[in-house]
Specification:
The chain is mostly helical.
């Protein structure tokens, strides 16, 4: 799905004069960040669900900080890489996120259907 996200970025950021490969590298970098952040969220959730009195409350705050960090990091990576203003970057960030969500949902649905048909 990363090539589709890079293509979406290439289409929406058409006036940036960046090559498709540069969009693909940014997409791979952001996905690597997402995998690490989601792994950290899984670990934090496991510790939080252990119900240790003071530690669970601390890890709840860490969980919230990680979720905010994900959105902030992805937004700022687009903002500084493409050197656009906050308003335009916000609009494009939301547009890219929605389009990528729908493309990923369709891809996952097709993959699931093929898995059940072929097995």
């Amino acid at each position: 799905m990363m090539p589709f996200l890079a293509l979406i970025q290439k289409i929406l950021f058409v006036f940036t004069r960046k090559f498709y490969v540069e969009h693909l590298i940014l997409t791979m970098h952001n996905h690597a960040f997402l995998f690490i952040a989601i792994f950290m969220i899984i670990i934090v959730s496991a510790v939080e669900s252990a119900q240790i009195p003071y530690l669970s409350a601390l890890f709840n705050y860490i969980y919230i900080a990680l979720v905010i960090w994900i959105f902030l990091y992805l937004f700022l990576s687009l903002k500084f890489y493409f050197e656009r203003g906050y308003f335009l970057t916000s609009f494009l960030f939301l547009s890219i996120s929605l389009i990528y969500f729908f493309v990923s949902s369709i891809g996952l649905s097709v993959f699931t259907a093929l898995f059940f048909i072929l097995s």
